[in-house]
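Task: sequence design from structure.
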């Protein structure tokens, strides 16, 4: 599709779903990955000019399915938008969905949301003095937000698929077997995970990738928005708490919760907001397995980089040993 046709289709879609005349201003592509593209723009819709974001799914040829494409559940673009709507209804600072795109719009699967200002880059959030007030609030905010996410009624999001811990471990095993990289460290990590699956886990809505990088943060008010709901699912809610503590997502910060907070403060905020007690050993499983899972993710993304001749993903692939080291450090009691 030409640039002119794309802009024309977007104008018509905005006018149809949000308001006429739909005139587009300052259209910019922010990201362009293998799975989706993100666009920023302003639009005239009959009142004050609207500041908007559009995310589109990238079409994948049906005749070339990747063998690993279905190992983990992923909502469709429409389902992801509806999940954000359910999250907002539950009090989660999720993007406000303004439109779910349809076939006649001619843009492909996707949705349009309001655009919110703030920072997503971890080095700035974790190191710059201006974000000191935000860092002081973010641990409590994270616990409260995760409690709200986990309270979303599953009946309101029946399209969400789920995986148990055992099924997630099996999915990472398939990644390792597919590429044939049987490193002793990752083999032992997968075996440890299989031997330590938590029992009697609850089953709730889970964000799946709750961490810095997927949060818009304000200097003084902290977490303004939770982004990237593309792997939302129905699973063990402690997965979200553990993932936030995985050392990779501390981005060099010294504190275990996202580089900005303490585990006990996160757990206390979550318990108060959710009414459910937190077993630190249960969260520790998800933190430890999260590092093993990310090691398999580095392998998968690195190999995908070779397939696509993409330097960025190849560079991620070389980091496979870092989360495995973090896994062993955690098991030995070192943060």
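Answer:
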């Amino acid at each position: 599709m030409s640039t002119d046709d794309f802009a024309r289709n977007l104008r018509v879609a905005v006018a149809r779903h949000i308001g006429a005349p739909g005139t587009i201003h300052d259209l910019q592509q922010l990201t362009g990955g293998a799975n989706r593209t993100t666009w920023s723009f302003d639009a005239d819709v009959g009142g004050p000019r609207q500041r908007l974001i559009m995310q589109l799914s990238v079409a994948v040829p049906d005749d070339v399915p990747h063998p690993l494409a279905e190992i983990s559940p992923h909502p469709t673009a429409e389902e992801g938008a509806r999940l954000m709507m359910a999250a907002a209804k539950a009090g989660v600072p999720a993007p406000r969905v303004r439109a779910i795109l349809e076939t006649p719009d001619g843009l492909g699967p996707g949705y349009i949301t309001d655009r919110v200002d703030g920072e997503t880059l971890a080095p700035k959030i974790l190191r710059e003095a201006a974000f000191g007030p935000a860092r002081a609030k973010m641990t409590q905010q994270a616990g409260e937000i995760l409690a709200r996410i986990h309270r979303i009624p599953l009946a309101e999001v029946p399209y969400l698929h789920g995986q148990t811990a055992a099924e997630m471990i099996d999915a990472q095993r398939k990644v390792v077997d597919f590429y044939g990289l049987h490193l002793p460290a990752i083999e032992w990590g997968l075996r440890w995970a299989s031997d330590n699956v938590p029992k009697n886990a609850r089953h709730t809505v889970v964000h799946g990738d709750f961490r810095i990088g997927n949060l818009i943060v304000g200097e003084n008010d902290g977490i303004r928005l939770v982004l990237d709901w593309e792997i939302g699912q129905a699973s063990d809610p402690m997965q979200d708490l553990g993932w936030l503590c995985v050392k990779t997502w501390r981005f060099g910060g010294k504190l275990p919760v996202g580089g900005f907070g303490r585990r006990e403060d996160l757990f206390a905020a979550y318990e108060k907001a959710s009414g459910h007690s937190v077993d630190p050993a249960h969260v520790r499983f998800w933190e430890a397995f999260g590092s093993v899972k990310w090691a398999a993710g580095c392998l998968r993304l690195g190999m995908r980089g070779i397939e696509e001749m993409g330097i960025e993903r190849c560079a991620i692939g070389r980091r496979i040993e870092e989360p495995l080291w973090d896994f062993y450090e955690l098991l030995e009691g070192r943060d």
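Residues 122-331 form a domain with the Aminoglycoside 3'-phosphotransferase; Chain: A, domain 2 fold (CATH 3.90.1200.10).
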